[in-house]
């Protein structure tokens, strides 16, 4: 797991080998983001999401091309794909525009729903 810190939010790089361990143990809210280097929207998300003011503890990036086990378990059908994990509990996928207002509203809605186990 690689960790970087910018002025807004912590970022993690997770893989098939370590994602479950970290997501279950990390405090606060994580936005799990599946991306691919060949996806223009994913490259935009990688560049812009860390700069948004979001109610998150961290962004957890997963390279979909290298982590097929997680892609299958999370049933990722399109990229970028975003999921919410809070205090080790899974709160589902986010389907919204990638802007601060829409992401914040989607996060609040997801966290108001019942939690599930991680896929």
Q: Please identify the structural class as seen in this structure.
A: alpha/beta
Helical residue percent band = 25-40%
- Average the pLDDT over all residues and give the rounded result: 94
Quaternary status: single chain
Number of strands: 6
Uncertain stretches of 5 or more adjacent residues: none
CATH architecture: 3-Layer(aba) Sandwich
Q: How many domains?
A: 1
Query: The CATH topology is what?
Result: Glutaredoxin
**Strand count, sense and closure of the main sheet?**
6 strands, mixed
In N-to-C order, the SSE pattern is EEHEHEHEEH
Total DSSP helices: 4
- Shape descriptor: globular
Strand order of the largest sheet: 1-2-4-3-5-6
Describe the protein in words.
The radius of gyration is 13 Å and the shape is globular. The protein has 119 residues and is an alpha/beta fold. Helix 2 (40-48) links the parallel strand 3 and strand 4 (58-63). The mean pLDDT is 94. It has helices at residues 19-25, 40-48, 68-73, 100-111; strands at 2-5, 10-14, 29-35, 58-63, 81-86, 89-94. The protein has a single domain (2-111), classed as Glutaredoxin (3-Layer(aba) Sandwich). It has a six-stranded mixed sheet with strand order 1-2-4-3-5-6, with helices on both faces.
């Amino acid at each position: 797991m690689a960790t970087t810190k910018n002025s807004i939010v912590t970022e993690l790089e997770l893989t098939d080998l370590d994602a479950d361990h970290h997501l279950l143990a990390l405090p606060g809210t994580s936005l799990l983001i599946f991306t691919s280097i060949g996806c223009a929207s994913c490259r935009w998300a990688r560049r812009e999401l860390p700069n948004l003011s979001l109610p998150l503890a961290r962004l957890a990036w997963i390279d979909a091309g290298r982590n097929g086990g997680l892609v299958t378990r999370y049933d990722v059908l399109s990229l970028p794909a975003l999921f919410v994990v809070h205090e080790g509990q899974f709160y589902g996928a986010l389907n919204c525009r990638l802007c601060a207002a829409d992401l914040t509203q989607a996060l609040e809605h997801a966290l108001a729903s019942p939690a599930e186990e991680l896929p």
